[in-house]
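name: query_chain
kind: protein
chains: 1
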Amino acid sequence: MVEIKELSDFERLKKEIKYIKMYPDQKGPIKKPEYDIFSDEFVMGKLGKGNIEQGKKRMKQLLKRDCYLLKELERVEIEALIKHGYVTSNSRDEKLQVRDEKGRFEYVVCLLPKNEGMQHVRDKEFIASLNRKISEIEWQVPKSMHRIDVVFNLTDKRIGVEVQNSALEYARLEEKIELLEKYFDKWFLIVPKEFVEKYSYLESSKGKVTTMKEALLKLREMLSKKEEILKKAK
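structure:
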């Protein structure tokens, strides 16, 4: 796991003095400018292997995703993402624990939105990675404030996937199912194993309440059929 070294008290003091010299007439707390990673030539140069512009291009590519497995990235890429605000998973912190579909701890780096856990961010990215060409994360429901976690836009159908890592209020759950039924030809509500039977009454001819492991098997099967159809068409 990559750790960013914290500034010492002396280094923090030096930075404060620097800002005071820059803004001598300012009264009250000093407002520090927001960090812009693209303006950090040292980081961009490292990321671009000596070429700042190439580093900026790579950074833009990296920011297209909210979560990565650490093994997908080079050390300098992980460091750049952390500087930008991404956070690494941590087995000792309950809020930052991430597990794969088999229950094994997973080392990831994620950009965490407010009110969303790292596990949920990881799960959405992992499901979308089954076929990034036709998947969309946080699909906006038409004329609504609601979003669907992951959507696969196939030629002849649209598949919606919602991931729920904990129990949900009855009203909110019903609302999610109504949206899935209305806008999708096929849908999956992924829940922990202990909740599958509890929420099974929500299933329909279109949708299934299931575990992550079972959903992945079904999704891979459906997406592989699409690939076969495309190959035959060619």
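note: The first strand starts at residue 67 and ends at 69.
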